Amino acid sequence: MKHLKTVLFLLLMSVQLFGQKEDDIFSKIRRESVANSQVMKTLSYLSDVHGSRLMGTPNYYHAALWAAQQLKQWGIQKTSFQSFDKGHRGWEISHFQVEMIEPTYSPLNAYPLAYTASTAGAKVGEVVYIPSLDSIYAMEGQLKGKIVLLGAYYEPVSNVFQPFAQRLSPAVLDQAAQNPDPNDLIIGYHSRRSTPQVFSMQNLIRKRREQFFNFCKAQQVLALLEPSDYPYGILHADGNRAVPAYMRKTDITPIASFVIANEHFGRLLRLIKLGFNPKLKVNLEAKFYQEPKYNVNLIAEIEGSDPVLKNELVIIGAHLDSWHAGTGAVDNASGCATMMEAMRILKAIDAKPKRTIRLALWGGEEQIFAGSAAYVEQHVGDLNNATPQKEQAKISAYFNLDNGAGKIRGIYLMANPAVKPIFEKMLQPFAPDNILTLQNANQTDHELFDFQNIPAFQFIQDPLDYMSAIHHTNVDLYEYVPEKDQKSNAELVAYLAYQVAQAEELLPRKKFNSPVPSLQGNAHFQLKGFLNAAQVSLVSDFNNWNMFGTPLVKTKDGWECKLELPAGKYVYKYIVDGDWTADPATPTNQLVRDGKGHAGLTEIWVK
Ligand SMILES: [Zn+2]
Q1: pTM tops 0.90, yes or no
Q2: Which of 105, 269, 275, 352 has the smallest C-beta neighbourhood within 10 Å, fewest atoms?
Q3: What is the mean pLDDT of each run of 10 residues along the chain (607 residues)?
Q4: What gap in Å lies between CA 537 and CA 548, rounded to an integer?
Q5: Distance 395 CA to ligand 1 centre (A)
Q6: Can you list the positions of beta strands (E) in 305-423?
Q7: How far apart are CA 350 and CA 273, in angstroms?
Q8: Separation of CA 116 and ligand 1 centre (Å)
Q9: How many CB atoms are closer than 10 A to CB 162?
Q10: What is the 3-state secondary structure of 205-266?
Q11: CA atoms of 252 and 245, how far apart (whole Å)
């Protein structure tokens, strides 16, 4: 009885879904996905079989080889590996242990941090607490054989009242859809900094920490423990906290370092406070790799069927590398499995897109976009002087999936309002579950393409438990990837990529978006002073409040740029090294507001 009901229900569903438009591409995609989905099997191979996939390791490389082989088996013959190697190294754990042996025995919940040194066997030492990196220097001569507890970022996290996992509510999505300012963070995760700022910031952090780790080595400190910032024993092991990622061959190698559960860090602190001297046994055996052949992006494509348009590209991508404590199932095997499945579906239904649809699985995203940055430099445009490369004018769109494993709920338009009506039409079968927001999203691989003014987008995804438990932790595992979401994501990506590949024209690009200052045009912007600043940009209604797309060039007494603007009245201000700054040449009583949250603006009339 139960079965009969199921059969009837499925029949009814298929009549509803496919009855009317038997041949339309959306129905074909849906049908192939429902009947033959490989997405969870792909996910399991990438995460369970290959495990964590830190850049530069055999695990990463073998996952890439497997993915290429799998794509070929699905009929996607054109695959290649492209090097992004710039002296990057790999690192892998062979064995480790962290235990308290005094005042009582207790295994400690800890995990090694990448690119840190082995301990050369099990070592026993007393712990010493330092509240900050700088406070270590006062302990010169007292650190030999000690294990340092670094409390710089310690905060007890016992009071967590947010739900672990959530989906985006219609109200929040609606608010994001209405948001007029791309810089307002209604949903998602982004910080206000430009791509060049990220690179220089990360290098600066590593340089500053070098002195600390060299001191630890000289003082013969045994190991370093930093507390996790997640609750419930979850271990946050990446290279973005007290111990940065020293991922190049020429970098220093810090002493053996571990992240320890917040609660266990707290216990050790309390024992010290009570007058005990906890003794720990630590052991780390780790291996470094220096194999340029491991540092590759995987590229695969379904060649366009139109003799002219096949030279143009729609690129879909996700990063294949991961951090090392979990299996990188959510971040980002889930994104890779979705993108691979989208390609499989398009091939299986013999979609024959006019433009070429290319898949890019990036390496080294967690090491400041190593893979996608190299691709953009080689094929799209120089990241410093913007010299265009072959694909600059040919890429219609780049779509990236890297915000966890949640269902796609729309697209971050990256301050490009011109694509809105186009995507609205293309995503019609997925409405009303999906929205479009002008909002920026960054900190992943589409950022480099956007920087070169390629229409490059990140999908909006339900957050689920991404930021409460999973992101760069030891529980980034298969169990947290919902099958239903994966399937519907693959369908949406396949359908959208196909639509963009079929469109009459390439997607429109942002106005006034360039990595280098424009010095021609009828509108002249000059900012006096600020000669110590590293970067100055214009933000205005004409560039849709795009924070870094309209840079100024440094002159002998300040900064300037010229732009070709249609006649009319505009308002603007500057961003000086990340700070919103009113034009000091405008008297304060003449500064205006735009009624959309921007104040301190200067009015300019362009003829
Ligand atoms: Zn990621």
Answers
A1: yes
A2: 275
A3: 48 45 81 98 98 98 98 97 97 98 98 98 98 96 98 79 90 94 86 73 90 98 96 94 95 98 97 97 98 98 98 98 98 98 98 97 96 97 86 98 98 96 96 92 91 95 96 98 98 98 97 89 95 92 87 95 95 90 95 88 94
A4: 6
A5: 23
A6: 313-319, 356-362, 395-400, 408-412
A7: 68
A8: 22
A9: 8
A10: HHHHHHHHHHHHHHCCCCEEEEECCCCCCCCECCCECCCECCCECCCCCCCCEEEECHHHHH
A11: 10
Which two three-digit tokens encode residue 498?
């196909």
Question: Which residue segments constitute the domains of the chain, with CATH numbers given?
Answer: 38-88+292-502 (3.40.630.10), 90-159+187-289 (3.50.30.30), 523-606 (2.60.40.10)
User: The tokens of 298 are what?
Assistant: 């995987």
The Å distance, Cα 9 to ligand 1 centre, comes to 38
CA proximity to 27, closest of 36, 13, 17: 17
Q: Is 418 exposed, middle or buried (0-12, 13-18, 19+ CB in 10 A)?
A: middle
For residues 54 and 90, the answer to whether their CB atoms sit within 8 Å is yes
Could you give the residue ranges of the DSSP H alpha helices within 388-445? 420-426
Give distance in angstroms: CA of 444 to centre of ligand 1. Answer: 7
Judge whether 278 and 127 are in contact, CB under 8 Å: yes
Distance, CA of 563 to CA of 574 (rounded, Å): 15
CB 361 within 8 A of CB 89: no
Interval between CA 183 and ligand 1 midpoint (Å): 21
State the Cα–Cα distance between residues 49 and 328, nearest whole angstrom. Answer: 12
Q: How far is the CA of 396 from the centre of ligand 1 (A)?
A: 23
Q: Which amino acid is at 2?
A: K
Q: 205 C-alpha vs ligand 1 centroid, how far in Å?
A: 21
Residue 273 Cα, ligand 1 centroid: separation in angstroms?
39
Angle between helix axes 58-73 and 335-348 (nearest 10 degrees) is 20
Residue 325 alpha carbon to ligand 1 centre in Å: 14
